């Protein structure tokens, strides 16, 4: 198993922000993953850091990156994918096999583990729609367990994994055979066009949606109405085309991003008495100000 010391994760993160992590494990299979977790029960686990804000001061600890657990198999309409596999790659592979159900993943930068963990979805499709079961690591039990769709308790952008500290290692999906592969390709192209029109390109360092949609409303609408579009703090800015995206346009720091999030959050709370919840997770050392902001924003660590 590959192990890196003082590993610079900045290039891996979607925000293109972050310092060095003291120790990073790159397991390639279930046994290696289980060994790392048994020896380090509380170690943070990440996919490709697509929705993670890493401290510019780095992290003086160890983490697991599952980027090398990226295999998948297609057997008829059944698909099994490991957690580190990127969603767009799987979407393209099943489309080639004329299988429908994962078209929404083509426009997501995340990996399968994270997408199952948060029940990702878009354009009328979600993970829960075609999910069968997941192989997870239970930190509480210290072992690998298999969870059915019913047990996963999927809801909007959530699953049981978030409540019981379960790490998704692989997932099985049951897809539908399409009459024409071209229908799948049309849907995927529409999803990509929508993302291009409504969301910033990944060439502009960003972490996707910053805040979750509150029940019955849109975080983007609330932030737009609060007047935060174009807001600039240090090297980052709120995207001018959609108020729920932060762009790291000029090598901004993690503190720049947290301070921007704080202003966005505070403006919405002040004007609409709604407390937005971050989509973004935080990893790393925190100075006094960063610690204060993470607690205020209720950032997941």
Termini separation: 25 Å
Strand order of the largest sheet: 6-7-13-11-12
The parts where pLDDT drops under 50 for at least 5 residues are: none
**Gyration radius from CA atoms, angstroms:** 19 Å
The largest pleated sheet is described as:
5 strands, antiparallel
Structural class: alpha+beta
Percentage of residues in DSSP E strands: 25-35%
Q: How many extended strands?
A: 18
Question: What is the ordering of alpha helices and beta strands?
Answer: EEHEEEEEHEHEEHEEHHEEHHEEEHEH
Shape estimate: globular
Query: Which whole number gives the mean pLDDT?
Result: 93
What share of residues is helical? 25-40%
Count of DSSP-assigned helices: 10
Structure write-up:
The chain has a 5-stranded antiparallel beta sheet. The protein has a 4-stranded mixed beta sheet with strand order 1-2-5-3, with no helix packed on it. It is globular. The model has no long low-confidence stretch (mean pLDDT 93). Helix 9 packs parallel to helix 10. It has 10 helices and 18 strands. By secondary structure, the chain is of the alpha+beta class. The protein starts with a strand and ends with a helix. The relative contact order is 0.14.
């Amino acid at each position: 198993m590959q192990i890196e010391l003082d590993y610079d994760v900045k290039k891996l993160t979607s925000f293109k922000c972050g310092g060095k992590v003291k120790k990073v494990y790159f397991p390639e299979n279930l046994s290696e993953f289980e060994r790392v977790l048994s020896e380090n029960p509380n170690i943070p686990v990440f996919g490709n850091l697509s929705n993670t804000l890493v401290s510019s001061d780095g992290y003086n600890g160890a983490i697991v990156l599952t980027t090398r657990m990226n295999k998948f198999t297609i057997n008829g309409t059944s698909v099994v994918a490991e957690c580190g596999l990127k969603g767009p790659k799987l979407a393209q592979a099943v489309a080639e096999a004329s299988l429908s159900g994962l078209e929404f993943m083509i426009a997501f930068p995340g990996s399968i583990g994270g997408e199952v963990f948060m029940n990702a979805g878009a354009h009328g499709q979600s993970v829960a729609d075609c999910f069968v079961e997941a192989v997870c690591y239970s930190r509480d039990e210290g072992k690998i367990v298999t969870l059915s769709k019913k047990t996963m308790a999927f809801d909007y952008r959530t699953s049981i994994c978030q409540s019981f500290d379960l790490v998704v290692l692989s997932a099985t999906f049951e897809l539908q055979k399409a009459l024409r592969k071209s229908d799948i390709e049309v849907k995927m192209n529409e999803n990509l066009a929508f993302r291009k029109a409504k969301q910033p390109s990944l060439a502009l360092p960003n972490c996707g949606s910053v805040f979750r949609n509150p029940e019955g409303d849109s975080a983007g609408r609330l932030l737009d109405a609060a007047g935060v579009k174009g807001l600039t703090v240090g090297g980052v800015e709120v995207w001018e085309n959609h108020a729920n995206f932060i762009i790291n346009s000029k090598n901004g720091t993690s503190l720049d991003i947290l301070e921007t999030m704080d202003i966005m959050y505070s403006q919405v709370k002040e004007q609409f008495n709604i407390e937005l919840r971050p989509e973004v997770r935080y990893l790393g050392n925190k100075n006094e100000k960063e610690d204060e902001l993470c607690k205020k924003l209720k950032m997941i660590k």
